[in-house]
C-alpha cells in the first residue's frame, strides 16, 4: 500500500479533518508523526478522532509519539523533566477537555503506548530526525527522535519527520540526508501538510491545507 503521512496537528482539528479527506484507507496506510496536541484550540477532538481512526483501521493507521505527547505522559507519571507540559500547552488542553465534557483518562492508555517510529524496508518515520548522537530511542537523550532539532543524518532509508515548523507552504526535502520535513506550522496559522509516498519511498504527492482559523482563534 502507498503511505499517507501527516505532519504536526497541534490541536488544529478542523484543518486535520480537511487533510484526512485526502486519505484513501483502501489503498493507503496512514501515519501521523506526533504532536496531535497543544497550541491549537481542539486537542481533545484531535485525540479522539485519531483514537477512533486507529480502532476502525487498526492495520493501516499508525500514530506516533511527539515531544508534546511525551511531555503529557511525563506530567502524569511525575517524571523528572526539564520541560513543563502545563507551560507548553497543557493547561489549555486540560481546559479544553473540561469545556468539551470529555475525559482525558479515556485516551491516556492509548497515548502512553504511542510508538516512537514507523518503518518499512525503504521509509523511516519519526517525530524528529535521527541525529546520529546517542541512542535515538533513549528517553534521556536530548537529541533523540522526539527532541532533536539537528538536520538528520543520512540513513539507508528516506526519513519523514516533523517537529521543527517550516515557514513554507509545502514540506521541504533535504537531499543531503534524504529527509522530508512535513511540519508546515499549522498552529502558527500556516498549513497542515501531508506527503504521499509509494511504499518504496517514491514521492507521489504533497498536500498542504491552510490552517482553518477556527483552530487557532
Oligomer description: single chain
Q: Which segments are poorly predicted (pLDDT under 50) over 5 or more consecutive residues?
A: none
Compute the average pLDDT: 97
CATH topology: Purple Acid Phosphatase, chain A, domain 2
Largest sheet: 5 strands, mixed
Count of DSSP-assigned helices: 5
SSE order, one letter for each helix or strand? EHEHEHHHEEEEEEE
Helix percent band:
10-25%
Give the C-alpha Rg: 16 Å
- Please report which band the strand proportion falls in: under 5%, 5-15%, 15-25%, 25-35%, 35-45% or over 45%: 15-25%
Pfam families: Metallophos (PF00149)
Protein name: Metallophosphoesterase
Organism: Belliella kenyensis
InterPro entries: Ap4A_hydrolase, Calcineurin-like_PHP, Metallo-depent_PP-like, Ser/Thr-sp_prot-phosphatase
What would the keywords be for this entry?
217 residues; alpha/beta; Purple Acid Phosphatase, chain A, domain 2; 5-stranded mixed β-sheet; 10 strands
Task: State the gist of this model.
By secondary structure, this protein is an alpha/beta fold. It is built from 5 helices and 10 strands.
Task: Describe the structure in your own words.
Strand 9 and strand 10 form a beta hairpin. This protein has one domain (2-215): Metallo-dependent phosphatases (Purple Acid Phosphatase, chain A, domain 2, 4-Layer Sandwich), CATH 3.60.21.10. It has 5 helices and 10 strands. The radius of gyration is 16 Å and the shape is globular. It is an alpha/beta fold. The strands form 2 sheets. A 5-stranded mixed sheet has the order 3-2-1-9-10, covered by helices on one side. A 5-stranded mixed sheet has the order 4-5-6-8-7, with no helix packed on it. Helices cover 22% and strands 21% of the residues. It starts with a strand and ends in a 7-residue tail after the last strand. This is Metallophosphoesterase. Pfam families: Metallophos. Residues 64-69 form the Serine/threonine specific protein phosphatases domain.
Amino acid at each position: 500500500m502507498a503511505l499517507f503521512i501527516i505532519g504536526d496537528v497541534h490541536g488544529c482539528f478542523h484543518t486535520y479533518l480537511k487533510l484526512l479527506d485526502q486519505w484513501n484507507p483502501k489503498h493507503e496506510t496512514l501515519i501521523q508523526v506526533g504532536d496531535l496536541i497543544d497550541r491549537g484550540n481542539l486537542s481533545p477532538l484531535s485525540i479522539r478522532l485519531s483514537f477512533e481512526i486507529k480502532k476502525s483501521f487498526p492495520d493501516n493507521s499508525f500514530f506516533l509519539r511527539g515531544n508534546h505527547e511525551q511531555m503529557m505522559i511525563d506530567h502524569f507519571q511525575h517524571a523528572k523533566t526539564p520541560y513543563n507540559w502545563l507551560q507548553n500547552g497543557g493547561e489549555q488542553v486540560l481546559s479544553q477537555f473540561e469545556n468539551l465534557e470529555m475525559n482525558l483518562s479515556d485516551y491516556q492508555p492509548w497515548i502512553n503506548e504511542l510508538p516512537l517510529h514507523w518503518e518499512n524496508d525503504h521509509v523511516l518515520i519519526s517525530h524528529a530526525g535521527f541525529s546520529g548522537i546517542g541512542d535515538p530511542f533513549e528517553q534521556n537523550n536530548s537529541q533523540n527522535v522526539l527532541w532533536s532539532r539537528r538536520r538528520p543524518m543520512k540513513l539507508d532509508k528516506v526519513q519523514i519527520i516533523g517537529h521543527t515548523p517550516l515557514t513554507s507552504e509545502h514540506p521541504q526535502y533535504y537531499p543531503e540526508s534524504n529527509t522530508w520535513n512535513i511540519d508546515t506550522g499549522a498552529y502558527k496559522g500556516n498549513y497542515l501538510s501531508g506527503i504521499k509516498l509509494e511504499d518504496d519511498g517514491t514521492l507521489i504527492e504533497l498536500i498542504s491545507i491552510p490552517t482553518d482559523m477556527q483552530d487557532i482563534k
